[in-house]
Automatic annotation (TrEMBL):
Substrate binds at residues 55, 60. The lineage of its organism: Bacteria, Bacillati, Actinomycetota, Actinomycetes, Micrococcales. It comes from the Bacteria. This is 5-formyltetrahydrofolate cyclo-ligase. Its cofactor is Mg(2+). The keyword Transferase does not apply. InterPro entries: FTHF_cligase, FTHF_cligase-like_sf, NagB/RpiA_transferase-like. It comes from Rhodoglobus vestalii.
Length: 196
């Protein structure tokens, strides 16, 4: 059973990865404007003063416009750094130079805080490959966010950032998968009530 699900996830990820890869420059630009505006709206609406987010790669929904806005509005943003043990370290966004972490994701070069630093934020913005209408999230396949979210006792709102076509009826799920409270796309914010 689980093998079928992980096969389904892999196939779906490959398809979504390819769709992101073939996006045109114009599509990327247009989506960045919307994503930034909607992330700002979400942070404002939730009155967040401290947010966990991520440094996007070229193919992901772009987060840097939001990060820049947050730093200008005295909102602390923590960014993940992948660790070999499957947990995430966190480090504050400082607009300075970036590095690559051990799996080649962009990572901050500021002071490294341990995995529990995320417990203090008001809002968590996560990357995802796809989210379904019940809030189940499928990530990129290393379980980093499932472990992180699954280990938190009191979770603030968790929103995944995806493109509109990645919000689907159902994603394949396994027992360890953690749901999100909503999604942010280039065209809007959807809050999902089921599960939460
Ligand atoms: N910008 C960004 N930073 C992030 C994440 C992210 O998704 N985006 N992460 C979120 O967790 C963590 C890194 N997670 C990753 C998870 C998988 C792969 C990866 O290369 N996956 C394979 C597919 C594996 C499969 O299909 O089973 C691949 O894409 O080829 C890379 C990073 C931490 N930092
Ligand atoms: N809470 C957990 N404890 C231990 N292992 C876990 C946990 N969550 C996920 N895993 C393991 O991580 C691997 C990847 O899981 P999955 O395919 O659900 O990742 P994902 O949700 O796509 O990734 P991510 O959360 O990094 O974006 C699986 O082998 C799974 O067994």
């Amino acid at each position: 059973m689980t093998d079928d699900v992980s096969h389904d996830k892999r196939a779906l990820r490959a398809e979504l990865r390819e769709r992101r890869r073939i996006c045109t420059a114009k599509e990327r630009n247009d989506s960045e404007v919307g994503i930034t505006a909607n992330l700002i709206e979400l942070a404002t609406r939730t009155g967040s003063t401290s947010v966990a987010a991520y440094l996007s790669t070229t193919d992901e929904p772009q987060t840097r416009g939001f990060l820049h806005w947050a730093s200008e509005h005295n909102i602390t943003v923590l960014l993940p750094i992948s660790r070999a043990d499957g947990l995430l370290d966190w480090a504050p966004y400082d607009g300075e130079e970036e590095n690559s972490d051990l799996i080649g994701m962009p990572a901050p070069t500021s002071e490294v805080l341990g995995p529990i630093a995320i417990n203090d934020v008001d809002l968590i913005i996560v990357p995802a490959a796809s989210v379904d209408r019940s809030g189940m999230r499928m990530g990129w396949g290393r379980g980093y966010f499932d472990k992180t979210l699954g280990s938190m006792e009191a979770k603030p709102p968790v929103y995944a950032v995806i493109f509109d076509n990645e919000y689907v009826d159902v994603v394949p799920t396994e027992v360890h998968d953690q749901p999100v409270n909503g999604i942010v796309t280039p065209t809007g914010i959807v809050t999902i009530t089921e599960h939460n």
